[in-house]
Amino acid sequence: MKNWIIVGIVFISLIGLVLVQYHYLRAGLLLERSRLDQRIGYVLDEVYLKLARQGAVRDMAMRVMFSEQEPLASPEYLLPEKLEDSIQLLIRSFLAGDSVRMDYAFALTDETGDQTFLKTDNYTSGAENELTYQRKVEGLLSGACGCIPTFHLQIKNTVNYLLGRLAYLVVPSVLFILLLAGCLGLLIYYLNRQQRLDAVKNDFINNLTHELKTPVFSIGMLSRMIRGAVDEGQPEKVLEYASLIEQENRLVKDHVDRVLELATLEGPSYQMEKSPTDLHSLVEEAARALQPQLQSLEGEMVLELDAEDSMLPADRTHLRNVILNLLDNAIKYRNGPPQIHITTRREGRGLILSVADRGIGIPGAHHHKVFEKFYRVPAGDLHEVKGFGLGLSYVQQIVRAHQGHIQLWSRVGEGTRFDIWLPAA
Ligand code: ADP
Q1: CA pair distance 398, 322, nearest whole angstrom
Q2: Residue 343 near ligand 1, beta carbon < 6 Å
């Protein structure tokens, strides 16, 4: 709960940060915009001066304007280009480095814009979404055209240009915000996982405590009964109770061993002891061990051990446990009398051992989770079948330690099949 409050605070802070950054960015853009206005103002002043005062530029402009009535004779037809170049030069000298980053266009028209005396190729008249500055040039030039000549300077990529000027602010801000958002995402992911793990662990502890309570209680009671039998001088009863204690003790040891085994497997120093092993004999051995249980449940087990060569390098004890675990599950999660089908076959450079049952099946959403430690498919509040959710996790670890892999096929109500592939050499 406390962790989620922290996540909430970080989330709100992040949103706050984004808003603050947004406002800074807006303020920065406004500032850059007023700087741009100022600089363009200087440029226009300079262009105005060149066009209004006596000099080569004004003369050229006048000739260009006159040409509206009287076409320019050779070699003067080059005048518009020359005028454009001169103004271009002027603008560049004023904008300096910015002239490269800024995409601009200009034109010289009458005051209504109907008559255009000069314009660059990229100038678009009447463009509304482009930032256009204007400066009227009265004076001698005005007389030349009988109008008020107006100089237009258009900035084509204003937003990009302004953002570019603020790149030193924008780029790190966006990067840091993304980084923070990423960390927040990770935090939520880990918290979720932790929460699930906690729930699963609590389940396991409850389960284990429950499983251990019964034998511990029985052992306590049997010990008292032994004392009574000794007092009454009944040695045969003492022997009977002692063997019952032994049985209960074995149960406790079994539970403890399973937990410990899994813990050791995860240790860095754990080494498999592999030796040439006959998979078929292991399967037969495991099947034999479960036969009495199967018979009492009126189940059946069919073995089709078809792999030609069933030898593989394996840790005998662990591999037998793997098979026993799968068979044990096939019996535990039965749907009526257990029906088990075990097959083997060669595939590639290894062997496939397949254990299939016609039991209750596993819903698709739980397929990948059943291999997680302590995970059990939820079955309401009460699990009819006892277990710790350790079996399949153990199976997967052992299979992986043999450089093999395990696959699960299952449908609710139809059954489950585990395919284990193990390398043969
Ligand atoms: P456990 O059997 O101790 O609960 P496992 O790790 O062996 O733990 O299995 C995890 C879960 O996968 C089980 O709780 C059960 O819900 C499901 N499961 C495993 N094997 C089968 C099977 N053959 N048929 C149906 N469900 C199975």
Answers
A1: 7
A2: no
